[in-house]
Amino acid sequence: MNEGDPPMTITKKPSRPKKTEEPRDAIASAYIEATEKRAKTESASAAAAVKKASAKPKVKSELPPAEPAEAASALIKEKKSKEKGKEKDKAKKKKHKKKEAVIIRFEDAQLAGIDTSADALGLSRAAWVRMVVARALAKA
Fold this sequence. Notes:
Helix content is 64%, strand content 0%. It is mainly α. It is extended.
């Protein structure tokens, strides 16, 4: 505290006055009670309709019991074939060498030739350059 400041005092806030319920208008209260009753009866009838729908006997499947086992075995075979494919991808990823970014600069005269070659093949300039570099690296 600074010397010139008045001493600090702590005071409590006055408590909030309690709300008193005002008597409702007779017509308004009757309307509110009627709508509450209607909502309760509608929800009860909706619940009863759901119970009736779920109470219907379930139709048993007409498939013989042997077919689900065959279908399950077919699904298991499909899952195994998918798993084998994933293993092959992992092997390819292990063989895959790390790539490094390379910046290649071309002169304006070279760009015209690159553009014509790329257009002839229906490629973009960048795709054509990647193709040429990949061929050169494959030969090396």
